[in-house]
Amino acid sequence: MAMIQRPKGTADVVPAQAYKWHTVEKLASETAEQFGFKEIRVPTFEETGLFLRSVGETTDVVQKEMYTVTATGDSEFTLRPEGTAGVMRAVIENGILNDGFPQKLYYILSCFRHENVQKGRLREFHQFGCEMVGTADPKADADVIALAKNLMDRVGLKNIELNINSIGCPTCRAKYQQALRDYFGARREELCDTCKERLEKNPMRLLDCKSPICKEIGKDAPLIIDYLCDECNDHFEKLKKNLSLMNIDFVVNPRIVRGLDYYTRTVFEFISKDIGAQGTVCAGGRYDGLIGELCGKQVPALGFGMGLERLILTMESQNCDFMEAKTCDLYIASMGEAASERAMAMTMELRDEGFFVEYDLVGRGIKPQMKYADKIGSKFVLVLGDNELETGEAKLKNMASGEQVAVKLDNSFTDTFSNALMAEMFKDLDEELAELGRK
To answer: All domains of the chain, ordered by start, with CATH?
Structure first.
């Protein structure tokens, strides 16, 4: 019988890798909360109309990549292709717009896009995202960018370049779109079929086309930055000044236009050179028209999404440190039924005190139990048998040093073991500090 395998474009996070995810999720949450953001959780699927209205009907996401499902008697639903639209729907529906501005929200969630699978690009992927609602001030743009940079600094990333641009507002963008129609229209017959359709509906999407011919034609296309109105230009200049005041280096990249329709003015990307073609670790910007598109109330907003798979890939390529995986504090090995029962009781008592303790659940002999304790990385082993139960004393073995000490099997054992564990932890810390001193 053929084995059923995971779907294409998905990944299993096995226990041996989970600690890397724990690292980035913990640091992401802590960083967001340090900047005043609070967690929000939204459904995995939404009514399809939400994404048609927010992401844009002419985008690749809507035209080619959405997973849409139906069930008898229900509306048409789509697995979320990104986080912002669902969060903004939740902000509107739950009255968060009435709670005072700015509202700062963060999330860690899975997204789904039917894409060509490659390194750093999956069909189910995970995002850390932050959204700030209720401010049009360019200081907010700089603050959101600072949050993203702060996280990347905390995980230890190097050689990450911040690229920024402004794609203007509907007023100045209309002039730019006409300039693009004139430019690409002169070579319309050379464009791919998708771009021929985009030329009238949304010409800025031509700048995102992956076709080599369209990319070559677009090399000399007009730049949005040359068409900004006075207000958008002023906003962009203030953003640059604010980033400089924050000591955040940046490059103005007039080719960034973003792939989703809801963006206005500020757009940005943090790009790594270390993970190949899919080098964008974080991307975001301002979307002042999105809430108005969803509910008719004009409220400015901005945010970013950071792909956790790409973040971890970049950390791995740069040999960044991850939190150590939690390992067993104590394994209680036993010989005989009475010792096995005592091992179970002691294990539960120690777990109640907060220790990570294991005991034999398979019925192994003492030697296989010791091998198993070593395999799971247990720091200490306590061996119980009839003799230990009779004398009320057993040997506590330090698995790293091989040292053994006699311990009482009475009410004092918890304190004795706690002291032994703390001594080992401080010993490891002293060794780490000594190693840093040698460096």
So the answer is: 15-169+229-317 (3.30.930.10), 330-423 (3.40.50.800)
